[in-house]
Amino acid sequence: MFVLQVGRKIESVVLPLELLQQLKSSDFTDQQEYDAWLKRSLKVLEAGLLLHPRVPLDKTNSSQRLRQIIHGALDRPLETGRNNEQMQSLRSAVMSLATRSDGSFSDSCHWADGSPFNLRLYELLLEACFDSNDATSMVEEVDDLMEHIKKTWVILGINQMLHNLCFTWLLFSRYVVTGQVEMDLLHACDAQLAEVAKDAKTTKDPEYSQVLSSTLSAILGWAEKRLLAYHDTFDRGNIHTMEGIVSLGVSAARILVEDISNEYRRRRKGEVDVARTRIETYIRSSLRTSFAQASICIVVGDVHYHFISTFLYLQLFQQFFELISLCFVFL
Q: Which of 52, 68, 127, 316 places its Cα 20 to 30 Å from the Cα of 300?
């Protein structure tokens, strides 16, 4: 059992180091489980302090010494749970790096708040909100669980804006990997994206903007792959998902253009209608692709004649008007 000294703040503790100092091999069911835990703990320290540090590394002996200790321990395991020379050296090197100041006046240790390591750890924590027996449903205790997860913000360097963005990505990725059939996930993602849009208008933090841009670009790319040739993606069986995907794509594009793009700031806002532009692009691209696939080309001399059957022609325009009526929601 991990025991935290009375009076110590959790943010002043390097958790993997504390566990390495308190747990020993006899606390595990077998040697294999212990070896796997030891390796994971050392890899976490390496990722948080050496590979993705919050405070940039300088050429100090501590970073070199920690790297040597970790790589050495992977070949010849440490004897954890004891106050021996190995553990003393590990603690000295870890604390020397973790207690470096990032310019704030606090006694926090920086071992898991460097990007993107902190975001990946937080995503893994948020995964616990979903039921292990039903990948599309959240656990009943999700509100209580979320309150506990938020207590890690001070360790991971997370704030409300990053939480909103991470949670949006979690809902989106869960919708994609579970077959793109659970509409509740799609609607929840769209609603969470609305919170992200509010956040994007209130900050110009470059680190947040970089994460925001990469996340929304991935969502927009996924949506547009389906909407730029929508007739290949949607049919009578899944047409009900189109509205949600259009909304997702338009929302992501609007944030990227209106709140991140420098070009948008240089022009008058009235000159750029993001929703109309995106939807017109989806319609034109889909029609162009449909006609190209459905037409028959006959070459007479140097002249190319393209024909399309009346049946296919009517089908294309039926799909076209379906999309037009749907898109009035966003215009």
A: 316
Is pLDDT above 80 for 222? yes
Q: Say if residues 49 and 98 touch (Cβ distance below 8 Å).
A: yes
Angstrom distance (rounded) from CA 50 to CA 15: 16
* Positions of E strands within 2-87: none
pTM for the full predicted model: 0.83
Please state, in angstroms and rounded to a whole number, the distance separating the CA atoms of residues 69 and 84: 14
User: Which two three-digit tokens encode residue 26?
Assistant: 């006899």
Q: What is the pLDDT of residues 132-178, one digit of tens each?
A: 899 999 999 999 999 999 999 999 999 999 999 999 999 999 999 99
Summarize pLDDT for 228-282 with one digit per residue, the tens.
Answer: 887 778 888 888 888 899 999 999 999 999 887 654 455 555 556 888 888 888 8
Angle at alpha carbon of residue 288, lines to 285 and 292, rounded to 5°? 140
Which of 287, 278, 289 minimizes the C-alpha distance to 246?
278
Residue 7 CB neighbours (<10 A): 6
What's at 167, amino acid-wise? Answer: F
What are residue 138's DSSP bridge partners?
A: 130
Cis peptide bond N-terminal to 116, omega within 30: yes
CA distance linking residue 275 with residue 251, whole number of Å: 8
Residue pair 156/118 in contact by the 8 Å Cβ criterion: yes
Cα distance between residue 299 and residue 295, in whole Å: 13
